[in-house]
Design goal:
Radius of gyration: 17 Å
Strand order of the largest sheet: 4-3-13-12-9-10
Mean pLDDT: 83
Shape: globular
Number of domains: 2
CATH class of the largest domain: Mainly Beta
Low-confidence stretches: 44-56
Number of strands: 13
Largest sheet: 6 strands, antiparallel
Helix content: under 10%
Strand content: 25-35%
Number of helices: 1
Order of helices and strands: EEEEEEHEEEEEEE
């Protein structure tokens, strides 16, 4: 366990940022890079632009986020909750899913825009008080109010459209 020097919160071993306050836990000089094995990942996860009507295979993914503008598919696995947003230089709190590579800033995605989580087999989505709003199938969500998602729902973080593909198996 790693104790945050800023807020004294106990974090999991290996965490780089405090889960409570977002402070960096490890000095930059002690960070090292590693090669991640990709042999178990499926080939061809990039899709052509347009909506998909079936789930995309991901390694133990409970849901996949299909970015409609680029066709990229981001699998959600290993954890039950993910924050979504974009990285901003100098900001200590970082989203779990960084949408910066997908033109998030131009699309109006906030730094901490929304959260997606799985609770008892149901997928829940919530806007975190974003500046440009969050929409599910064209309907604007109220901030900090949880909303259930169904397979194939299209969410929009600002103007960034993402189709949610839920693994029902």
């Amino acid at each position: 366990m790693i104790v945050c020097s800023n807020c004294k919160h106990t974090n999991m071993t290996g965490a780089m940022f405090c889960a409570e306050c977002g402070a960096q836990l490890i000095g930059r000089d002690s960070l090292t890079t590693q090669t991640i094995a990709t042999d178990g990942l499926g080939r061809g996860t990039k899709r052509i632009t347009g909506e998909l009507d079936q789930a995309v295979e991901g390694v133990d993914a409970w849901a996949n986020l299909h970015l409609l503008d680029t066709g990229q598919v981001l699998p959600l696995s290993s954890r039950n909750e993910f924050t979504m947003g974009r990285v901003s230089e100098g900001q200590p709190i970082m989203p779990d899913i960084d949408l910066s590579p997908y033109q998030a800033y131009a699309a109006g995605v906030s730094r901490l825009h929304a959260v997606i989580k799985r609770i008892a087999g149901q997928v829940i989505f919530m806007d975190l008080g974003s500046a440009n709003g969050t929409y599910i199938n064209g309907k604007r969500l109220a901030s900090n109010v949880e909303q259930g998602l169904n397979h194939g729902d299209v969410i929009a973080l600002g103007k960034l459209r993402i189709q949610v593909l839920i693994n029902t198996q």
